[in-house]
Each structure stands twice: as C-alpha cells, then as structure tokens.
Amino acid sequence: MAGRLHGKGGSRWAYPLPRRTKGSTRRFTCSLMVLTIAALLASCLGRPEVPDTYDLRNVRLVVWDALQVKFPDSADYSEEVSRVIQEFCRETGATVDLRYAERREILDLLTGTYPKDTTEVPHLVFSGEYPVLSDRLEDVSHAVDPDIFLDAAANYWTRDGKLLGIPAFIHWTGTAVKYQAGGEHAPENGEGEGRDLEEGEAQVPRPSRTAYWTDSPLFLRCALDVSGMEWGAETVLQYAEWVRENYGSFHDDPLSAWEHGLADALYPVNPYLYKWLEAREEEGSGITIVPPGTHFDDDRFYYTVPAYLVLCEGGAEKAAAVELGRRLAKSLGRWAARTLACVPALVDDMSIFNLESGFDYAERKRIWDSVVTGEAKAPEAAEYLQVVSLAGALEAPLREFLSGRISRQDLEGLIHEALSRNTRP
C-alpha cells in the first residue's frame, strides 16, 4: 500500500518563503550552506535516513500473537494486548485484525512449512519463546534504534547490521532448586565445606538429587549450545555420563518425584514452569533458579529473546507494523518481567526486573551474569529444525542409559546411529 504524506490531498505542506532583504539573503545563504554541510557529514557518518511519516488511516494490519498463561494475582496479558492495539488504532486510525495463533503455527509460518496459498499471512507476528530466523523477516533498523535494547537482546536479532526483530524480553532456562526458607544453601563447590564469597558474588545452591526430562529438546541444548560444543558423539556421551553421576537416578515422572520429595531440583525449567512450581510451594519452603550444571565449566543460563517480527515490505503497512510491534514488545517485556521474572529487553525497563520480578539480588545477579556475557543468536530455521530432530532421535538412547538399562558402549553405538540418520546442525 503506497504511503501518503500528511497534508492537503496527501501532499507535503507548502510554506512560502519570506521576502528577502540583502542582509536576510546573506543569512539565508549561510544557513543553507550550514545545512548542506551537516547533511553531507551525516551521510559520511552513515546516519540512517529518517523515514517519511505515513498516513496510517487506511492501513489494515493482520497480527498474529500468542496467548500467554494466566497466573493468579497477575495481569491477564490478553487484556494488555487489547489495550495496546486499541490505543494504537485510536491514535493512528489504522485497523488491526488480531489472531491468537498456536506456537506451532507461528513456527510453521517462519520455517516455510505453512501453506503458501494462505491469503491472510500476517504483517506482524510474535516469534514465540524459541525463535528462528526466516527469509520472510524485514529489517527494522531504519525505524528502531538497537541501542535502546540490552546488548544481548539486540545482538540476538542482528545480522549483517540489520535488526530483524523487535525484542520483547529475555527468556531463560535453568534448574529449579528447593530450599528451606531462612536456611543456608549447600556450598557451590560441592566439597561439603563453605567458602568465602567475593564481593557481590552470588551463592549458588547445589542440589543433590535432580529430576530431569530427557524428552525436552532443551535437555541437550542448555548444555551444548551455551558451551558452544559440537553435537557430536563424544560430547553427548560425556554429558550423559555427567548427568547420571551428578543428577542421580532417572525418574519417569520428574514432577511427581519433585512433589513427593524424591528430588530437590528439576531440569530444564523455563519461567512458565518456575512460576507454576513457585505457586505450589508450601509455606516455609522456597524455590530458586540456578544455571544448568554441566561438565564443560560453563555455568550460564540458556536464553532466547522472543520478539515481534515484521513480515511486510516497505510503505505505510511496514511503518504501521513496526510501530505496533514496538508497542507490543514494550508491553510484553514489562509483563514478562513482573509475571515471569524474565529480563525485559528495553534498557529503561530494567528497574521493573530489579524491583518487581520477585527475585532477590543473588538470583537476579545469576541471571544477569549470563545475559551480560551471553552471545546467543537466533538460529536459522533449518538449523533449528535439525537440532530439534537430532535431540528427538537421541532422547530414547539417553533415557535407556540414564535408567541403567543399557551400557555406555550400547549408548555410544546408538548415538552414532542417530547421528548418521540426522544431519548435524
């Protein structure tokens, strides 16, 4: 849809120049030279052009969002979405058709497996909590300054100088650990003896029994992706041995083991599950979140950066999609900080995480240490699908080994067999 400039008949406003005297002509000439030099300097310095202002009154946007879980005593995010869209439509005159899509539908759309004859492909879509890059994504860096976001959030969506998403929040995954309220956590070094913490260092609880989901795609990704390890037979085998030695017996039902006191930690746990576990804890007990343990000497949280993605090319539609995406991303980031204890993507909203997330200083520092040193990037769609496929192929062999039903040698053979059937990411 072609863009129209504000003004009579869709044209620029025309302002007549005042009558010039000799002195005013000299001042006018000097002013013109200054403006010309400034424009040339801006061009040399690579400053992005300021986009035209579009009349959005005739724009119709199709938006796909994803429903968020409703938690007691927390704001209903669907109401926030409605408020943001209504305000946007009132201020711009645009029309928005909102649809809450399943996360699988969104993934199918971005990976190109969605029916190509679909007539209602969205202009703006929420990426989901496990985003992928797609050739459908539009560069929004002309209208969105990456510097307003945390470096980890902006870097996650930046490729070749292009910002391909409008970050909302940082979605972490780690290990949930029980502890007695007011009690002391086990020492981080696991030696049975305490040690003096350095100034500002956070004490990390060390669970002795961890129930885990081998069928979660994040079971391997949290360990291998964060550490930058290759998804090879040796690294998978080493990690499986470490899990069996450090996490303890395999439980077919990790949640049941947690609730019946057979495990004092759960892995992997995302913010949604953490919130649910926290709500079910009995008075006098507590729960905290720590980075996933590995044998790779890299104790950092695995994280992704959900965002709003613009799928339409230039003109008024893209301008409208970018503006609405900015508003929705800001709203979702604040909701996620308050409700899920996630880190908002906007630098200016960090105070919400610090004051309203419910985490204490030590917990916030553990998460922040992973974010500030993080190098995570949104994966290409093909890479993501390969990783998911490979993780699925390895799940059964890992479960059999961790249950004690097959030997290390058997596991090694099954891993090689799974790798030979799946293209490595």
Q: Which bin fits the share of residues in helices?
A: 40-55%
Could you state the order of secondary-structure elements as H and E?
A: HEHEHEHEEEEEHHHEHEEEHEHHHH
Structural class: alpha+beta
The radius of gyration is: 26 Å
Our estimate of the beta-strand percent is 5-15%
> Which overall shape is indicated by the principal axes computed on the Cα atoms?
globular
Total number of β-strand segments?
A: 13
Largest sheet: 6 strands, mixed
Q: So how many helices?
A: 13
- Residue-averaged pLDDT: 82
Query: What is the CATH class name of one domain?
Result: Alpha Beta
CATH architecture assignment name of one domain = 3-Layer(aba) Sandwich
Poorly predicted runs of 5 or more residues:
1-51, 183-195
What is the CA-CA span between the terminal residues?
39 Å
